[in-house]
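Table S5 (text form). Sequence records supplied for joint modeling of the two-component complex.
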Amino acid sequence: MSAGHTHELYRPADTPVHHLPPQCKLVAVLVFVLVVVATPRDQFWAFAVYALALCAVAAVAHVPAGVVVRRMTVELPFVAFALLLPFVASGERVDVLGLSLSAHGLLGAWNVLAKGTIGVVASILLAATTEPRTLLLGLERLNMPALIVQIMSFMFRYAEVITGEMHRMRIARESRGFQARDLRQLRAVAQSAGALFIRSYERGERVHLAMLSRGYAGSMPVVVDVRAGAAQWGAAGLLPLVALVVAVTAWSLK
Amino acid sequence: MHVPDGFIDAPVSVGAGLVAAAGVAVCLRGARRELDDRTAPMAGLVAAFIFAVQMLNFPVAAGTSGHLLGGALAAILVGPYTGALCVAVVLLVQALFFADGGITALGVNVVNMSLVTVLVGYLVFKLLLAVLPRSRRSVIASSFVAALVSVPVASLSFVLFYALGGTTDVPLGKVLAAMVGVHVLIGIGEAFITALTVGSVLAARPDLVRGARGVTPTLQLRPSAAPIAG
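The corresponding structure-token record, covering 484 residues in total, follows.
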């Protein structure tokens, strides 16, 4: 990994959202999603307001809709599951397009899909506007144990190295004529996984020695400090505040 | 499957978050004992390995493919505390950076896929190893059963959360049957790949399989009998 390497998840830009301290954004997203999850599901308008609020954040942060939609594919397995709900849930049945569906199931599917999608989009916006390194600093600021943050940063830093290694192993297997057709070919894949574990573990040992030779004594040096003032907390609090007002209104209308 | 936001209601999600935080704190202390000052880089690299290996797909049948969850594998290879910690870190990174698994559902996901899977997998592994004869084959057989059991039990723990705070009206019996049914199948795939992977590590570097310590003889340095040519 060369210097100045930025992760593909992060979309660098010069916007107010990018400039917010990471800890403010983390808390804002967490509170926002919690409020969304706690909103009664039959208040459909509330979810429209949440979606609009997220669109506004995306617009301010210059995150194109295409990027968000492409990353939303992570949600797909679960969409398939939600679509099954109206067929298996109990309760009174309603006829939609000639299909007998459970009314509760329809509402349940809507509930899961709406809340899940809003949660996914909020996380995507967080990752797109915050550099991974700074996001980890934000976690540390929020009193996440330093050791966990260090492990996360190592995992994040080497995830691409290890997946790259796995990818090369696959190319090596396939260039020798290997084709994974069914479970019988599992042995070869598992042997690659075993080799990958040994390589990862040994790389960890080398990284540790390299750190020791550079004076590592249990904690990482703080290079940049991210502090947040009241104004920044206020700006980041806008999104959860809007959501909170909407949720309280939705509850009182119910 | 990573549980998304909105599937489990807010109070139960928060409660699960507290349980997960306590569990991870215990694992952190245990991992420090297992790894001392090597904790950060070693656990980080093992977590990166689990992250990578979860993307390893293998065809199962009729166009469907399975992938490894890795809880039992991690526990057997690096020990229960480090294993659970690494899986929890993978889930944390997936939720925060990749939007995979909801942020509010993080507690539920950590309890199911990290704490329960590792605990059950490791207990089954150790119990079997205690009764089976000490050999390579027993280690592989025990890891097979450990992985096989750990996945459906994790799905049971999901059903428990669903019973406490599920937001959909699917009857509990149906959820139980569907979740456990599907996860028994996933567990079989998990069992095969876990056992084969443990076997291949055992063949190359038996010292790196923490769960099998004391089963295989440790290698010793011995001075050579032949005189050194000078």
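Note: DSSP finds ten helices and two strands in chain A.
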